[in-house]
Amino acid sequence: MCLAIPAKIVSIDENNLATVDILGVTRQASIDLTPQAQVGDYVLVHAGFAIEVVSEEHAQETLDLIREFPELADVETA
Asked: How far, in Å, CA of 29 to CA of 49, rounded?
């Protein structure tokens, strides 16, 4: 099964690589597929690529579910 995780864009460099925050962990994600994405936006990240810009409400709803069932994403609850 594939899963895209909501992440908040923290910064974007000149190569369309964004630093994103996923549940307090920062990662790099390409925004080549979402050129409209800006710092502060939430995007769905799958396999190192931002595949869709989503609303903050949608992102938070999904992140809340992940926190509720940490075994699904192998994360610890804060």
From this structure: 5
Cα→Cα distances 64→5, 13, 24, 32, 57, Å: 12, 29, 13, 27, 10
Other CB atoms within 10 A of residue 18 CB: 25
Buried b (16+ CB within 10 A) or exposed e, 48-77: eebbebbeeeebeebbeebeeeeeeeebee
Q: Are 63 and 72 in contact (CB under 8 A)?
A: no
Name the residue with tokens 């610890």: 76
pLDDT digits (tens, 9 = 90+) for 7-50: 999 999 999 999 999 989 999 999 999 999 999 999 999 999 99
